Amino acid sequence: xxxxxxxxxxxxxxxxxxxxxxxxxxxxxxxxxxxxxxxxxxxxxxxxxxxxxxxxxxxxxxxxxxxxxxxxxxxxxxxxxxxxxxxxxxxxxxxxxxxxxxxxxxxxxxxxxxxxxxxxxxxxxxxxxxxxxxxxxxxxxxxxxxxxxxxxxxxxxxxxxxxxxxxxxxxxxxxxxxxxxxxxxxxxxxxxxxxxxxxxxxxxxxxxx
Length: 209
Prior knowledge:
By secondary structure, the chain is an alpha+beta fold. It has helices spanning 13-27, 74-96, 189-194; strands at 101-116, 121-134, 140-151, 154-167, 171-183, 207-208. It is rod-shaped and about 140 Å long. It starts with 12 loop residues before the first helix and ends with a strand. 6% of the residues are buried.
């Protein structure tokens, strides 16, 4: 009787064991092991799954020891943010804080005198100048200018101007305005003095404010 060899294929037991383990794990249900110091997950109630309609409503729980909750250089970032905020506030305060507008008297530019011989009045047109200095970092509008001319504590002329001039930042401008002055009534002696032929130069003192 003769003998024959039958080829036998060798199967890798380790591969089969790996496949079997994966299939077993896939079929193994979720089981939550709660010990003495553990509690059931309040999100899934121990089932391992969450309802599909609550996917966008639930918040993941991160352990307190997670490094994502412990960013590095927190003090440096907070300190730098505070310094930057203080610097920006200082700049805004420096540029936007209002400064006074300086007004200077530019003197009298011209004087035109008329005599009314019928009523013994002296009529004067006085043109004065004002200088405005704007030390602010924004445009300033001169809303109004009031002027009075006095002679011997008596008001002999007034002038009111509104919305007259705009001054650009860190600049100065000059404006001229004319006040009509009338000297008459109890001051009619001024007419006699000013028309006196024996005096070549007639000077009177008036105050402008």
